[in-house]
Amino acid sequence: MNKYELTDERIEIDGRTLYRIRALRSFHGVKTGDLGGFIESEANLSQCGECWVFNNACIYRDAKVLADARIYENARVSMYSHVSGKAQVFGSARICGYAWVCGHAKVSGSSIVGGDAMVFENAQVEGNSWITEQARVGGTTHAHDAYIDGKLQVGNDGSINTATYVTGKPVVPNDLEIGDIVTLNSGGPEMTITAIDAGLYTCVRYITESRTMLLPPGCMIRKVVV
Question: Which of 56, 84, 58, 49 is nearest to 69 (CA)?
């Protein structure tokens, strides 16, 4: 038995007609008769598993939501992208291009995952992040206001490990070296430089906390004299 049907309520997005869905049976968090979000056709949302689109979220073009994935609020999944596993997409996030979001990954805020990028395992992408090209973000990575592109791979199997915070290019002193103790010009905790990659990504570890992060775009840091 199908789990949902298309209703007569429709909206137009990018020149395409999408229809609100209605549940035909109860399953995880959804009751018979509940209205869901909008899809262009049944090809967008699997009739199998517990995947669902809630609120005013939209799935259209050749995008597919499969397995137990959940799409909430005002999120959009479009083009040729896939969301599967137990992944969640919410807020005003956009999944597009040929991107994949899978595993237990979460994408939220105004984030965009596009190109051939993949967000997987337990990774979280939030804020105004942009994950694109062939980027791979996995493990327990936490990307906030991030810009990750090219073939950068971030995750437990990469050069940056557990609880990574990923963002863009920082402004750093020219003589910065691994092992230097630094702090933000605006204040905050002292941190130890643990990696420098051609000035594009500077990885620091908080001295007072057991976590690693990449410095945010445009941030100013200074050395601490010891």
Answer: 84
pLDDT at 19: 98
Query: 95 with 81: CB under 8 angstroms?
Result: yes
Residue 201: helix, strand or coil by DSSP? strand
C-beta atoms surrounding 83 within 10 Å = 30
Is the distance from CB of 139 to CB of 161 less than 8 angstroms?
Answer: yes
For residue 167, name the pLDDT band (cuts at 50, 70, 90): very low
| Strand ranges, E, within 24-126 | 35-39, 52-53, 58-59, 64-65, 70-71, 76-77, 82-83, 88-89, 94-95, 100-101, 106-107, 112-113, 118-119, 124-126
Q: Mean pLDDT over all residues of the chain? A: 79
Q: H or E stretch including 5? A: strand 4-13
Task: Please tell me the predicted confidence (pLDDT) of residue 155.
Answer: 56
